[in-house]
Design goal:
Length: 256
């Protein structure tokens, strides 16, 4: 067997496994599922009738946790609190497929969301999800977020919602971006990629912001609305997001 032929067989097997997983998910949640509980309850999370469905692009992105509403459970209190703060703008840096960008628009947490992601496919999926939920006019989809763009967009009555795999160490710098001193933040920090980044951000913003730190916790899977076919073992397993040990989030609230 040639090396090329072997690679083709391996890819076919991977594809078959993906298809079985997708079929199973569609069997459990239906072909037109909505998020069943949590802060974005009722949001549609699937495009019906497309051969390249959102499921096929998101199957490795904690899709079950998102569909049941348990995703990033340790900060769900912060997420629920966003709408009450009446932000004029949310800047979602590292928006991926749009779970949070579309979710915040769907719940009318803010009239304007600017969603940044450097990868093309997630931006395409975000646009599809936004159209599906009727919120595309509220969302501006962009690629790379740099200091200049962040300076123009941030400021009072703005939330910076950031998950960029360690890039927060360079980007979120109030010396380079002075208007950040007036913005609020929810940040997923990545000390396993950039050691010390959480403390670095705390030091940068300690004089201008009230600071809260949240660590990862075991998921309370019993509190969510599950399809009947899920066993307790499945519920426990599917809510586990596979995060590195010691994962942290920061919420920074401007005092200025």
């Amino acid at each position: 067997m040639s090396h090329t032929h072997e690679l083709m067989i391996r890819e076919w097997l991977r594809s078959r496994r993906r298809e079985k997983k997708i079929t199973r998910m569609e069997g459990l949640f239906g072909k037109e599922p909505v998020i069943r509980s949590g802060p974005f309850k009722g949001m549609k999370y699937h495009l019906p009738g497309e051969s390249d469905s959102v499921f096929r692009q998101l199957i490795n992105s904690a899709v079950v946790a998102k569909l049941v509403g348990s995703y990033e459970e340790p900060i769900l209190g912060w997420i629920n609190d966003v709408a009450g703060r009446k932000y004029e703008r949310i800047i979602n840096i590292g928006s991926a497929e749009g779970y949070f960008a579309v979710g915040f628009a769907f719940t009318k947490a803010t009239p304007k969301i600017v969603a940044f992601d450097i990868a093309e496919k997630p931006r395409q999926v975000l646009e599809k999800l936004a159209r599906l939920n009727g919120v595309l006019p509220q969302i501006e989809i962009k690629t790379l977020c740099d200091w200049d763009q962040l300076e123009k967009l941030s400021g009072p009555k703005t939330l910076v919602f950031c998950d960029i795999e360690g890039g927060e160490a360079e980007l979120l710098d109030p010396v380079k971006v002075p208007s950040l001193k007036y913005s609020d933040f929810i940040i997923e920090t990545h000390d396993f990629l950039v050691p010390g980044v959480t403390n670095l951000l705390i030091e940068r913003f300690r004089l201008t912001h009230q600071i809260e730190v949240q660590s990862d916790t075991d998921r309370q899977w019993k509190r969510y609305d599950w399809p009947q076919a899920f066993t307790d073992r499945m519920k426990c397993g599917w809510t586990h997001e596979g995060r590195p040990k010691g994962m942290l989030w920061l919420r920074l609230t401007s005092k200025l």
